[in-house]
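Appendix C reproduces, verbatim, an entry submitted by the partner laboratory led by Prof. M.T., so that reviewers can inspect both the input and the predicted structure.
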Amino acid sequence: MRDRGWLWFGRSAETPTEKGDVVLNPTLGQLYFFRLPKGEPYMLGGFIRVQFNLNLTGPRRVATEEARIEIAGGLRYDIRPGDTAIYVGTLRLRRDEFNEVVKADIVDEYESAAGEFKKRFGPGTPLRKAIPQPQT
């Protein structure tokens, strides 16, 4: 559970975060590729778990305690009918001393990601740049 994010995707921007239809669990700080159904274009939100404690409180009782950095949703990925793969950028979060996100940016690292994509999937699969914009 360390150094991983949890991201939920869904069909509608109004879907509550942890009720999304698709969940991803990427390793933080690493380039990753994932398969997402074309009908699930909304990143609903997610979190990064920074602390998790499991305490046995009795013979059949367990208490859990966790601390999270919440990731706001509100992104819609521009998935077009003819797309086989899209590049969506790098989500970079800045947090304060209380683990509250104070700034979120999407960084365009298309050139390096496209090179890695071509190595993994071959030159015959096109990768279209589709960096999302926040929904207003």
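The chain has a mean pLDDT of 90. Additional entries are available on request from the coordinating office.
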